[in-house]
Structure prediction request, 256 residues.
Amino acid sequence: MRYLIKFSYDGTNYAGFQKQPNENTIEKCLETAATKINNNQKTTITATGRTDKHVHAKCQYAHLDITVNITPPKLKRALNSNLPEDIYIIEAHLVKEDFHARYNVVEKTYKYYINLGEYNPLERNYVYQYNYKLNIEAMKEGIKYLIGIHDYRAFVTESKDIENCTRTIIKATIEEDKQDKNKYIITFTGTGFMRYQVRNMVGLLIRIGENKKQPIEVKKILESKSRKKNGYTAKAEGLYLEDVKYKNLEKNIIKL
Prediction:
C-alpha cells in the first residue's frame, strides 16, 4: 500500500535531505523509521524534492510503500515514535498506487528570512543574520525580473550538467516581517526549483540591496544564462520549504 506523509523538520543538525555515506540526513532518518515499521523490510521514501544542508521545511511531502497492514493515523504515530525530535510527521494518508509525491506537484513555495537588525544568537540557525541595512526598494525592483517563465541557468550552480533549466516563478515578493520591522521575508512560489536556485537568487538580491548591483542586472544575468555572472550564494540558514501543492490531492486519497 502506498502512503503519503506530510512532515516538517529543523535542518540544523543534518547534512541535507538526501542520503549520503556516513552523514546524518533527513531521508536516512525517515527510511530507517519506515523500515522498522515495515517488519524490517527495506523501505524507501520519495519526497517532493531535496533540501540542502541546514535548510528547514515547514511543509514537505513524501510517499512510501508499506506491506504491513497499518492505518494512516497509526503510521503517523509509529513514525513519530521512531524519529528524532527535529523531524515530525504532520499527516499520513493512504493514496492510490500511481500517486507520485514528486511528479504530481504543481506548486512549491520557499521563504527566506533575513535579519537586518542586531545579531541574535538564538536565531542564528533559523534567520540569516545579515545585521546591516539593505536597500529594500531596489531589491523589490530587482525581484520582479525573476517572475515568469525563464531559463534560470544563471542561478543553478550545476547548470552545466542540467539540460533543461526552464522553470516558472508565479510569485516573488519581499515583505517586512509583521512581528519584527528589522526582519524581511523573501518569498518565491513556482512550479519547481533546482538545487541552490533560491539561495542564488537571494544572493543576487542581497548584492542589489548593498548597492553593488543595479535591479536591471537581474534581467541581464537571466538572459546571459551564465552562472559566472552571479557568483554569490546566500547562506542556507534562513531558508524554508514553506508549502507544497498538488492538483486534485483529495481525489488521490483513499478514505478508509
Observations:
- Residues 3 and 48 are 14 Å apart (CA to CA).
- The chain has a mean pLDDT of 95.
- The longest strand covers residues 166-177.
- The beta strands are 2-9, 45-47, 56-65, 87-95, 105-115, 128-129, 148-151, 166-177, 180-190, 239-246.
